[in-house]
Every structure is written in structure tokens, then in C-alpha cells.
Amino acid sequence: MSRKTDQVVQISETAFWSDIKDEYIQKLANTDPNDVYPPINPGPTNPDGSVNFECHCVGHLVASPCGYEFREAISCQKESTEEQMENGACGQQLMAFMECAMRTQCFKTNDDEKK
Amino acid sequence: MLLRAIGRSAKNLVSVRNIALSRASLGGGGHHHEPTPVYTPKPGSLDWYLCGNNKKSAHEPEPYIPKGDDYGSFVGAAVFVGLTIAAVLFKTDAFKKDTHVHHHVQKHETSHESSSHAEPAHEPEPEEVEAVAPEPVASTSSPSSEPTPVAAQTSEESAQPSTSSQSEPAPVQQETPEVSTPTPEPVSQSSESSASSSSPSSSSPSTESTPQKSEEASNESDEKKKGLYCEYVIIGSGTAAYYASLAIRAKQAEAKVLMIGEENELPYNRPPLSKELWWYGDENSSKKLDYTALSGKKRDIFYEVEGFFVKPEDLPSATHGGVSLIRGSKVVKICEEDKTVILEDGTTIGFGKVLIATGTRPKKMDLFEKSSNEVQNKITYYHYPADFKKVENSLADSTVKTITIIGNSLIASELAYSIKRKYENVNVHQIFEEKYNASDILPEHLAKKSTEAIQKMGVNVHSEEKIGGVRKCCKNVVLTMKDGSEHRTDLIVIADGEDVNSELAEASGLKINSVNGGVTTDKYLKVSPNIYAAGSVASFDDSVLGTRRLSSWENAQISGRLAGENMVLNKNEKDEKAFWYQPSFFTKFAPHLHLNAIGQIDSKLETVAVYAEPEKDSQIERAVVFYKSKNGGHIVGVLLVNVFGPSLDVARRIIDDRKNIEDLKELAKLFPLYEAPKADE
Fold first, then answer.
1. Which CATH superfamily is domain B592-670 in?
2. Which of residues 511-570 of B touch A (CB under 8 A)?
3. How many CB pairs under 8 A join A and B?
4. Which residue ranges run through the membrane (chain A) (predicted)?
């Protein structure tokens, strides 16, 4: 076994922006940064347009003791139009969620900070 | 000539080099460990007798009776109006915002070696950062969401700017968690006696009287816990456990999850203990464990508040499930056949699926273990929030003017840096046997440079030193070096390696990996049909990099989620997902040295470091270090020095593709070593 080596090289700015010769590297360079590797977070919407509750963005909401109420409220909201919402659609679900959140005190509040 | 170059780069900017140009964020992550053979447990260590044919009986449901108090506080009309407003807010924002955010999210996580953390790209702190990528990212570690003026912080995603935090349910008066939590810290100073050191505390002096209380408390609840059954049981209450609970509840809406943790704290985010709490904390930080993120928002290290966790006795009757937490309780055995776990006090809890997420604990040093109690009072093995409190308090009140940190690990080095950064006038010493800081992960030239940088800021680094003895003298302790010299200090902080909390797995007859330590899992993080493991206790099969065990925060998050998902999928007999997303980690232990790394970051591998030319008027050096596999030479790890942008994803791609690339200077063009020229012509 040969002794391992730690090489150090420098690349000048000009060289850095010069053309890439390697095909594989060029292909990566052409890729949109968002597509270079799949995200681990699935995002908020399923392919069919419904809410994806596995989105990390709602992770702690669905896991909370009010997760069920949260799902109901959001699903309802997603299915309703702006107008229906204004006319009180989903009010019940939203209230149920709020009520649950207050009863269980399951979320951090800014009050914590003031204390 | 120059013009042409600029013109060309401007052109590239637009069409050609998407990757190198976008500097968005960065991440943090994982770290080393090689493949290893599996080993079978020694039969002697198993106490099978504990596993009887306990019948599990579901707890009797107790109907929920709302108490007056529950409602009283928000009956008023004003509150009602507030609610309505909140509801509208909620409606508008909850999802929309994160639509565009979520992409970012995963890139933000950073962490550092042992258990570190992190979400957002760590942005460089203001002072040093000017020159660096100016992205205002949130600070590294904590999960809590910034932008919400109101309540419900979405903690985990907090890193991201918007997330759903808008959903806060209204201005609720909230009790501080401590109030309702009897937090007994059962460990006393010289404890050792406690069977496993994973208990939090060897350092919290405040707890003297509590052990008793906790016993009483647990006796009381014993009866209730007997015969308890929970579909999903998680052993441990750290980052992996927490994220597993989220993933289970996300996959199965009404799942009931019971988390059993040995620590007395609510689940918390560990990386800030050696970073943000020092950098951005204030005089209350040692009490509240909070700090002001770069965004200006206060964050504490806890993922959730007390109210998030359903009381264990209420869980059986919780119609829509929830996550329960039993704190300060140790599981001593998993009985695979009868699907039960046994707690130290004899309580038996049945499960459908169980997750082992017991993590690691600081490695004890014989020399100090054998020393007198007086000496031991001056020693902190740095790992728990209580350790931060102890060290911070003693520095804040000036009882400690000279502090000595032992070890060259990332945690030790971060602490040396962080303490010096906050307490300029304190004498900070770091002692270790190796030649340089972080020499197990950094190639020698970089380790040397880092060591010089931390020395330059005022940390006294004593490398290649061996401690021969320790004794108490007057008000402080004296360390005797092997060469006979003496070193006097007020406090010793040890962060020199970790031990895996794998006793439970051993006692339960599960396979332990003899090289990495930890319990052996397959690529699905499954130990056996109903048992999973995640976080730093799991030695898992990574289809790209071989068998590994990682102690980074991001690994805890990723593997915790994956195990949680697979525990549910398993039940539905669908396909489980194999481990696929390489965790990264972030560390910083010298000014102008932001390190993010991913893959196999092991200084025993061959490396190639590609540096940008030093910039005028800037102390910031940018470089990308490639770690090459021992067999084949393809890239297995990438370390970024002051380089951000989508680089971690690019590195994930390269590692997955296992390409053998001759000219790594070419490959370095994918990483933003230089600012994109302005395309203003």
C-alpha cells in the first residue's frame, strides 16, 4: 500500500470559468440546481393536486395532538373556493383546530419569549 | 483578453454553468465510518428471562372530560375575533408559502459531527461574513420558524423562512413547559453508579434533591403503565426519535406513538450547545436555552413544547392519536417475540413496531474516572444541555477563568472556538494527543491551517500532549502532562469521542456491528421484522458508501424520518424505502472557516483540495476537498470550505454516480469557488 497523498491545487478565476471538457461534468453544469438531486422533502402538494401531509413543512402540525383537526381544516380549505371560504366554509374545521391548539397548548407561542 | 474572459463568463452565467452560479444555501451533514463485518452477540449478555409471555392489554380508554380551565381563558369575544383573523391568515398562508420554500429546505440542514444540527445554511455571522456569501440564511441550527409573528412555530421546518408557521392557532397563553414537568434529574455528581451514563446529567448541580421525587412519580404511574400498549414505540427522545415520530404521524394520520427517553428534557436540538447558544445567546441563555437567530427571532433548542406531547395515560383514549413522551425512563430490554419493551422499573409496554434511537454518550476517560470526587466536580463531559448550563454559568460569573478542553473532535474544537469567541478574557486551552484539530476528518494541510486559525484567535492549543495525571490543588485542578509539565485550570471539559448506547440492543440479542459499534440494520434501517434503528445508534447499510454509523444531526433527522416511514409502510406491506439521501454536516471552529461536508469524510482517504486564489482584502479562502475511495478512486466525500450554494446537492449527485474523474480541477468548476461575474453588459 502506497502512502496516501493529500494533493493541493489551485484554480485561477480564468481557468475556473473556462470551458468544461468533461462530458459528465458539463452535463451537471447545465443542470438546474434544483434538479441536480431529488429533494428529500416531498413538498406540499401531491401530483393529483391534493395536500401532501408528508411535506416536512407541516411535519410538526400533523404530528401534534391536533394533527387530525389540522388535516381536516386544510383539506377542506384546499377543496373550497375563495368565495366559499369567505362565506364561512371550513369555519367549523378551522375552529376545531384552533380549539384543539388552545386546549392542548401544543404549539410554541411568542408568549414564551416574553416570559 | 480580460474582456473576453469576462464576456465568456457572463455568457456562461446565463447558459452554461447553472450549478456553479447559484449560491443558495448550504447544508451540513454526515460523516465517515467504513464498512464492516457483522458480529453476533455474545449469548452471555442476554437476559432472556425478562421476556415472559406478557399479555398486553390495551389500556382502558378514559373519556376526555374538558376542564373548565381549558376553555376559560379564551372565551372572550376579543379572542374570538383574534381567532377569526388567525384563521384567515392561516388559510392564506399555510401552504402557499412553503410551496416555493420547500425546495430549499433540504439544503439548509447542516450539522456537524456528533449530533449536530442544523438547518439553515449557516450563515456566517455578521462580523466575519461580510465577504462571504451574503445570503441571509437563518442560523444554523435551530428549528423554528422565523417569520411567524404569532404562535405555532413549525419547529422542524423552522429553518425555512416561511413554512406553515402562519398557522398558528392564535395567541394562546402558554404555560412554560417547566411548570408542569416534574423534571427530576436523577443523576448526582459522582454518579457513575447509574448504570448507564446516558443520563443527562452529570453536571447539573441543581438537582440534588430530585432523584427521590422522580422515583415517587414513576411509582405512581407504574400502575398505569403496566399493560400499556402502543402501536409505535420509540426508545430514545433525541433528534432521530423526534423526527421518526413526525414521519409516523405524517404517514398514518391517527397513529399513536410513545417515545421513551432517558433524559429529562423535552426532545431538543443538540448542535447549538456548542455553537449558536454561545454565538447568539444572551444572559438568559443558560436558563432558557435560547438564542437570537440571525433573523432576529428568538429560538430555543427544544423541538416542541410540553403540550405537544399527549400524556401517556391519555394516549390510549386519544381518538386521533398523538405522540406521548415518557421522560427519565430507561428501556432495558426489547422482547422481540412477545413484542414488548421492559423498562428499568419493570414496567412492560407492548408495541407493534419499535424504534431504537438511543444515540451516543460521551466516552469516559479512565484517568478522570479514577480521580477524586473533588476533581470530578471540575470535570464536564460535554453532551447535554446541563453541561452547557454548567460551563456557561461558571464562565459568566467568572468562577472559571481558565478552562481546558480535552480532545480534538469537532465538538471540542467548536467549544474552544465558541467559548473564546464569547469570553475573550477567559484562558481557553485545548489539549489533545493528535497533531491537529479535527485531524480525523481533515486532510493534514487543512487540519494544520485550522489549528493555526484557532490559535490565532487566542485559543491555546496543546497538540501531541498526553495527560498523565490529575489532582485537585487549592481552588483548581492540575493536569500533569506525560512530559512532566503541569497545567493548572479551573474547569475541564471533555469531548473526546463517544460511546454508543447499544447496551439495550445487546441485551435484546440484536446484532451489534463490531467495527462501527451500534446495532446493525439493513438498508431500510430494519433490525428485524418489527424492530428498527435510527440516528447515531444505527450501523446501517448504505448502498453507495457501505456500512456506516453517523453521529451527525442531519443523519439523525434523515434516518429518523426514514425509519418512521418504513415502520408504517412495513405494516401496510408496501415497499419500504432504502436509505438514499446523504446527510451532511456543518462545523465552524475558527473564524472564516465554514466547513460543510458530505459523504465519507475521513482523513485516511486520499484527498484532492482545489483552492480558489486568495482574494485581496479578504481572509476568506475557498476550497473544495474531494475524498477518493480506497478502491477505485471515485469520489466518496466532499468537504466545502467557505463554499455554499447548491454544492451539497451536487456532491450528493457525484457521490451517487461513483464517477472516477481524473481531473478534479474540472470537477471543482461545479462549485462556486468564485463569485459569478456580474452580467451587466
1. FAD/NAD-linked reductase, C-terminal dimerisation domain (3.30.390.30)
2. 558
3. 304
4. none
